[in-house]
Amino acid sequence: MPATAPSLADRAYAFLLDRLVMLDIKPGDPINEDWAGSTLGMGRTPIREALKRLETDRLVVAYPRRGTFATDVNISDLAHISEVRRTLEPTAAAAAATRATDADRARLSQLRDQLDSATPADNAELLRTDLELHRAIYQCVHNPFFEDTLIHYDNLATRIWCVFLPRLQGMAGHVDEHLPLLTAIVAGDAKTAAALTLDHVTGFEAAIRALI
Questions:
Q1: What is the DSSP letter of 71?
Q2: What are the angstrom distances between the C-alpha of 97 and each of 114, 131, 154, 192?
């Protein structure tokens, strides 16, 4: 069956999600519904539907008579987010190695080759690449409930990354850690994929704690 075209609310959600995760909409900033609607060429209804989803994602918070605002990034949440990711991410990588289709493996191989030949970019672009790679792996799990949960915590972790982005060193190396991980998943090596993912997630937490 052909893929269903995204609804207006889906488009609004994706538009706002990217800006909230990358802190283009800064913590505490109000969400301007008129600006979002004008930018996307749509009315307020799909914008408000998207904001309800984003509130469930803990990326925005709505206050009666005040409006909707981007949530704060609380560094104290790092330990909680990391605990969840250390449990879920290796399991997801192992599942991806086992369940990935031929088409999935071809896509991951293409992403690996692109990453291997890419010229190191600025930290923000590297972080977007990190997000893209994680989401590609999550899709290979072929469990929509698991995938949604993985994306949720990866988004929260990425917001913490963004707070420290100007001070982060070795971001290119962190992203390049995906090269052997993608190779393991493409090869169907679940054990190696899980171990590499655990190292990757643990390294994220260590890099942030070194700056706190």
A1: P
A2: 20, 19, 19, 9
> What token pair was written down for 52?
């309800």
**Please, what sign has the CA dihedral across residues 165, 167, 170, 174?**
negative
Q: Pick the closest to residue 97 from 16, 207, 212, 197 (CA basis).
A: 197
Q: 3-state DSSP call for residue 78?
A: helix
Between the alpha carbon of residue 91 and those of residues 77, 113, 114, 182, the distances in Å are: 22, 24, 25, 15
List of long-range contacts for 200-203, beta carbons under 8 Å, 24+ apart: 200/89, 200/174, 201/82, 201/85, 201/86, 201/89, 201/90, 202/82, 202/86, 203/174, 203/177
Which pLDDT score, from 0 to 100, does residue 2 have? 47
Can you give the pLDDT at residue 1? Answer: 44
Whether the Cβ atoms of residue 115 and residue 178 lie closer than 8 Å to each other = yes
User: What is the rounded distance in angstroms from the CA atom of residue 184 to the CA atom of residue 192?
Assistant: 6
CA distance 33 to 152: 23
Residue 144's H or E segment, with its range, is helix 144-164
Alpha-carbon distance of 74 to 139, in angstroms, equals 28
Q: Percent of the chain, pLDDT > 90? A: 74
